[in-house]
Amino acid sequence: MGDFYQNGIITTLHHLADRPIEEVEEELTRFGRKRPLALILPSLFSELEGPALSHIIDEISQVPYLSEIVIGLDRADEEQFRYARQFFSKLPQHHRILWNDGPRLRALDAELQALKLAPKEAGKGRNVWYCMGYILASGRAESVALHDCDVTTYSREMLARLIYPVANPQFNYEFCKGFYARVSDGKINGRVSRLLVTPLLRALKKVFGEIEYLQFLDSFRYPLAGEFSFRRDVLTDIRIPSDWGLEIGVLSEMHRNYANNRLCQVDIADQYDHKHQDLSLDDMEAGLSKMSIDITKSLFRKLATQGYTFNTETFRSVKATYYRIALDFVETYHNDAVMNGLQLDIHAEEMAVEMFSRNIISAGEQFLSNPMETPFIPSWSRVSSAMPDVFDRLIEAVELDHQEFMAE
Ligand SMILES: O=C(O)[C@H](O)COP(=O)(O)O
Q1: Among 246, 290, 322, 365, which residue has the fewest nearby CB atoms (within 10 Å)?
Q2: Which keywords annotate this record (predicted)?
């Protein structure tokens, strides 16, 4: 539990008291009669074999208020899809699996590719995009939550708190982002969020001034959280990137499409842990290094759409400003850790900051050398205007896969 301070320019909903989960779920069940509720789970087949997802599914099976669960399954062959059908069959709620690598969805994807309307890159962005299309197509849900499948500290409370702000019919929120303390096993994690995103946003504010867009992003207490919820109409016009810029891309779209009072963030957990990726100090194409480049480019691109111009000198100033701010943050986090009896490896933190500084320059170079590069996937409204029966076809493909591979 924390304080009740409102930072930034969007509403923060805090964890101020413990409520029995049954009471909250009863309320959500009531809300669900007016606004049916759904959940999207973007997952990799490999996650079905780890401990996190089994526990997540055990928890979700006890949730009484969901009308639909949409599972986006990536990197699964036929046998693995069969296994997935079995794995998810313990969910008592209505659920469907999008077998993204199966022949039916691949065929639809190929047709969309031919029209230049499909995601160019495989990955979480593409998976989420198809799941969003499915929610629009099925029309079963009015409010939807989405979370990662590698959360090792998952609980039903987390989902209830995540979906509540868009489920309560008396609230006017279109979108809600989750936040939490990424602290576990005596360590402070969240390296990209803490050591790249926040100091970079502060640096960009110093270089470009207190732009509203930067204030908006800086209001989110965990901008990279993979947990968010939204009303269905948000999905029609949203353009999301297929790379690691996904989370920042979604926030940017919300900023473009809605007034700040329709957006909020919610404290969903006192502690949060997940699968950690490698920093990849020596490989810009992998791990947190690639993630930091994608995120930085997405920020540069967004500022460019607002009329700001960049050249090599700008990137040098951004990098130098960032570096100074980030080093101060390392000291701040270290002191926070020490006072709480947690560990923080200053050397590892500073190595991460050095890598992120280099990557700011590389992201800048890539941005200048390829200004036409856009990882954005078209909005579903554009896709359905180019292929009017796309929603029926998506539903049909998923239903046929569902029937053909019945869970034993
Ligand atoms: O949110 C983040 O900063 C990245 O996903 C990395 O997180 P981690 O340091 O907890 O692995």
Answers
A1: 365
A2: Transferase
Residue pair 229/163 in contact by the 8 Å Cβ criterion = yes
| pLDDT, tens digit only, all 408 positions of the chain | 789 999 999 999 999 999 999 999 999 999 999 999 999 999 999 999 999 999 999 999 999 999 999 999 999 999 999 999 999 999 999 999 999 999 999 999 999 999 999 998 889 999 999 999 999 999 999 999 999 999 999 999 999 999 999 999 999 999 999 999 999 999 999 999 999 999 999 999 999 999 999 999 999 999 999 999 999 999 998 999 988 889 999 999 999 999 999 999 999 998 999 999 999 988 988 999 999 999 999 999 999 999 999 999 999 999 999 999 999 999 999 999 999 999 999 999 999 999 999 999 999 999 999 877 888 999 999 999 999 999 999 999 999 999 998 755
Among 151, 152, 189, 278, say which to mutate for ligand 1: greatest number of ligand atoms within 8 Å of CB. 189
Ligand 1 center from residue 151 Cα (angstroms): 12
DSSP string, 146-197: E--S--TT--HHHHHHHHHHHH-TT---SEEEEEE--EETTEE--HHIIIII
Looking at ligand 1, which atom is closest to the CA of residue 222?
1
Give the number of the atom of ligand 1 that is nearest the alpha carbon of residue 197: 3
Cα angle 162, 163, 165 (rounded to 5 degrees) comes to 95
Distance 25 CA to ligand 1 centre (A): 30
pTM tops 0.95, yes or no: yes
ipTM greater than cut 0.85: yes
Type of residue at 185: D
